[in-house]
Design a protein that fits this description.
Blueprint lengths: L1 H8 L6 H13 L3 H13 L6 H13 L3 H13 L6 H13 L3 H14 L1
């Protein structure tokens, strides 16, 4: 959140695009905890979360072996009416795979087939 605050002090607007970029940067640097702080901070700042937000956050789960959180985020996308796409499912499956949660990965595959 300090990154978002610093960006804002330099004239960068705190919006979905900015948060998505910050979350993606955290994901690439294996900073899953920071990615989740940013993800949850968006609500506090009144910033909408979109599919890119969720996908980047799910991808961050892979680096931290946070497979259960990835599954929760995928479920949250459905309940919050955010369109799940191939990236959403692939990132969730990858998070499950990295933690050797093969049964969960197979359930995600089945869910993807069932919703298409």
């Amino acid at each position: 959140l300090a990154l978002a605050e610093e960006a804002q002090s330099h004239g960068v607007e705190k919006d979905t695009i900015t948060f998505n970029a910050l979350i993606s940067a955290c994901e690439k640097d294996a900073q899953w905890q920071m990615a989740f702080r940013l993800f949850h901070g968006m609500l506090d700042d009144g910033v909408d979360r979109d599919a890119i937000t969720f996908n980047a956050s799910i991808s961050a789960c892979q680096g931290g072996e946070q497979w259960a959180m990835a599954l929760q985020l995928l479920s949250d996308m459905h309940s919050q009416r955010v369109q799940r796409d191939l990236i959403s499912y692939n990132a969730t499956i990858a998070a499950c795979r990295s933690a050797a949660q093969w049964e969960s990965a197979m359930k995600v595959c089945q869910d993807m087939v069932d919703t298409r």
